[in-house]
């Protein structure tokens, strides 16, 4: 049996991966801001203390993690939207996205290392194609792009250290494509129906990429899209 840990478990993708895990006879645990009455979920508010509480609860329970999915992310908020022009740049929005999209995932990697250091485990962190500097020909979306580019650097840096301290762990930066979710909702209008993926479809792609991840070398995070194509940094 494979055991998943999903951080951001109530995200559209997190829920779909949890469903897929159960359907395959696997199991999951998760951290989310709203655990509701699901006993497999623990509450957190994106802070270090509640992250540690959740992780130690599952360690005490003897839950041995096979795969981690970190799918926290934010693109827009009540008071801000992705910038079309540099004039719209707002420092509070930029810092908020840096915290959620870059700092929170690497904080998870910090506290996961001692837990998975002797395991054959896979860690998937949700990134985005717009976080690729080499691929950026369109511009715009300053804060989201920069936070995902920072995430990529943080995860690659962690991959170098994990190769020494947790040599059987592999790390992936996963780009889901355009997926129907609260995050993408306001930006779906121009997307052709066949290019707007359901979370269940993307979860199926993610599970395939996880199987391929073991072939990737330690020390190099694999920045890859839903269909298995490597994305340039
Ligand atoms: N949808 C797309 O088209 C698309 C494209 C490229 C990349 N992505 C990336 O894929 C990942 C999953 O996105 P999604 O589309 O499934 O989005 P989503 O349904 O909007 O989920 C995002 C989740 O992030 C967590 N989150 C947001 N703000 C947080 C905060 N302040 N503190 C703690 N957690 C917070 C929440 O998890 P809980 O509700 O569990 O607390 C939220 O449900 C994200 O990293 C996103 O950037 C999505």
Could you describe the 3D structure shown?
With 233 residues, this protein is α/β, with parallel strands linked by helices. It has one domain (3-192, 201-225): NAD(P)-binding Rossmann-like Domain (Rossmann fold). Helix content is 39%, strand content 15%. It contains 5 helices and 7 strands. The protein has helices spanning 12-23, 48-60, 91-116, 142-165, 199-213; strands at residues 3-7, 27-32, 41-43, 67-70, 121-126, 169-175, 222-225. It has a 7-stranded parallel β-sheet with strand order 3-2-1-4-5-6-7, sandwiched between helices. Helix 2 (48-60) runs parallel beside helix 3. The longest helix is centred in the middle third of the chain and has 26 residues, at 91-116. It starts with a strand and ends in an 8-residue tail after the last strand. The model has no long low-confidence stretch (mean pLDDT 97). Bound molecules: NADP nicotinamide-adenine-dinucleotide phosphate (NAP). NADP nicotinamide-adenine-dinucleotide phosphate (NAP) binds next to helix 1.
């Amino acid at each position: 049996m494979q055991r998943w840990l999903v951080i951001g478990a109530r995200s559209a993708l997190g829920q779909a991966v949890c469903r897929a895990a159960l359907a395959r006879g696997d199991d999951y645990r998760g951290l989310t801001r709203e655990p509701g009455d699901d006993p497999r979920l623990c509450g957190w508010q994106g802070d270090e203390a509640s992250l540690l509480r959740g992780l130690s609860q599952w360690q005490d329970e003897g839950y041995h993690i096979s795969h981690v999915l970190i799918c926290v992310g934010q693109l827009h908020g009540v008071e801000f939207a992705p910038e079309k022009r540099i004039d719209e740049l707002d420092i509070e929005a930029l810092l908020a996205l840096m915290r959620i999209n870059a700092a929170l995932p690497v904080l998870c990697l910090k506290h996961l290392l001692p837990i998975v250091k002797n395991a054959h485990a896979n860690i998937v962190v949700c990134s985005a194609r717009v976080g690729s500097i080499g691929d950026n020909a369109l511009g715009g979306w300053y804060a989201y792009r920069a936070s995902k580019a920072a995430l990529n650097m943080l995860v690659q840096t962690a991959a170098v250290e994990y190769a020494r301290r947790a040599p059987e762990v592999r790390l992936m930066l996963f780009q889901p494509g355009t997926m129907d979710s609260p995050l993408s909702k306001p930006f779906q209008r121009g997307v052709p129906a066949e290019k707007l993926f359901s979370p269940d479809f993307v979860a199926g792609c993610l599970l395939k990429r996880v199987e391929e991840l073991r072939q990737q070398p330690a020390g190099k995070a694999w920045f890859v899209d839903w269909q298995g194509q490597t994305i340039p940094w």
